[in-house]
Amino acid sequence: MIGKKAGVAFAIIFLVGLFPVYQLFSPHFSKTEEPEPSVASEPALKSIESSIEPGETLFSIFQKHGLNIDELFAMKQAAASVYRLRQVHPGQSYRFVVDDRNCVSAFTYQINDNTELKIERQEDGFSAQKCETPYESRALTISGQIEETLVGALGASKEDLSLAISLSDILAWDIDFNVDLRKGDSFKVIAEGLYLNGEFKKYGKILAIEMINDGRTHKAYLFDQNGRSDYFDPDGKSLRKAFLKAPLSFRRISSSFSHSRRHPILRIHRPHHGIDYAAPTGTPVSATADGRVTFSGYKGQYGKLVILSHRNGMQTYYGHLSRIAPGVGAGKTVQQGDLMGYVGMTGLATGPHLHYEMRQNGRPINPARFKMEAGPAVAKASMPEFRQLAAAVDQVFARSVFYSAVAAKDSRSDAGDLAFMLSSQ
Ligand SMILES: [Zn+2]
Questions:
Q1: pTM of the model
Q2: Cα of 53 from ligand 1 centre, angstroms
Q3: What tens digit of pLDDT does each residue of 378-414 get?
Q4: Are 186 and 331 within one domain?
């Protein structure tokens, strides 16, 4: 992971330093490293690396590789206070280092994305400890073009989905990722890729985004100030705003409908000043801003309705809900993004849809015209540093090779050849 202050400086250096590398290697760069000749005098340790297959236990893995079962018991005992080794899960990676007599000298097991169990032979048996996974971080450049959905443009794997969700989270105040995307919209992302033993494992932080949506360019730069990192536009203004662009969160919807690829949501403007979102019954509805619940229940044509009060005399309405989320009762404080309920067709509705309304001092207003209050901008004193970072990032956007996430699916690991390490762990 990137350190706080040092991370920014490092990011600048690394971004500036990126060009020569991009010019040197093409995406078809092939690895030509010779295997290192083995030195005869070194102890003959070999490494067994794999991942747990469905139905496999450590016992069967020991048998498969002809390892000494007695050592398995000793290892389990050593690990007992740290991690119960009988719970190995399919798909998790492991690595044995064994000597020429097939005695285990070290064993590593990936407990979860961020933690690994390390068991090592000591003079008097084994020692075990849990460690943070020592990811190597590389900067990856990914691009895509919207055909239908953001997820479609990135790919369908778990990691692609998580990148799509992170991207939508960063721009959620400006773009409604469920309805605003247009065919031909494009994006470029610079993101941390976290690698383990040279293999891509997952995405880390998004460092910068350039997204063209419906002809408008949106940019986001990750910048750290006072120990807090956040995303800013090219002028150093915070991307966080008092109100989210939409009450239907791409993040919530993506995680609650993970089985189907498309969840068509239509936005229908009505002369009644509200916005109707046609969406499947059960689609989660989120609070667009921090506030307090002033109404929660059934109200005439609105059906099941939640009304929130916000700063500056603002109110938001969420109507026709099939169900109000538990705990969303009058008087309760809510935060931006909190679950309010689920789309339905209670009250006067011909089909399942969310009726969303913004009011100021009781008068309906057009959310599209409303001037949003934004979060704290980059401090004046930090602006030179921010501008330097933004300029370096812009150069990467302008001149780098960006991998099309879908067209060249296999290139992600090759992208490592083009990228720099963000930190040395
Ligand atoms: Zn309506």
A1: 0.75
A2: 51
A3: 999 999 999 999 999 998 888 877 777 665 454 454 3
A4: no
